[in-house]
Amino acid sequence: MTGEYIDEIIKQYQKQYRIMTELGHLTGELESAIQANDRVSIQLVLEMRQQAIHEMEACRRGVIILIDSIPVEQRGHIKGLLSKADDDIPGNAQEELLREKSYKVYEIVRHVIEMDRKLSLKTAGKDSFYYT
């Protein structure tokens, strides 16, 4: 039974990866639109980014719901796989795939946040959310 939940969580992570890839692409498009001072494109890309962020959040909530549906005695192990806490514990092929997908999403989220941070600091300077 847990295997079915893991399959669904893997699907959610694959979807998250696709969304984050698109968000990274949109961040590049936003930078181009800002450089061209194209207000219409800026607004359009910002709206598309917001939609992608909402989709990402829906996926994240879906993963939480799926994890909460797993029997309590197995839930901790799955959470450990997702948080890298169980990295040194070998898992079956399905668990290893879950660990891999989770890590790929983590890495692309970090990458997109860094892209966003650089763009924000470049365009907003001291008014940037990221300014410290």
TrEMBL record:
UniProt superkingdom: Bacteria
Protein name in the entry: Flagellar protein FlgN
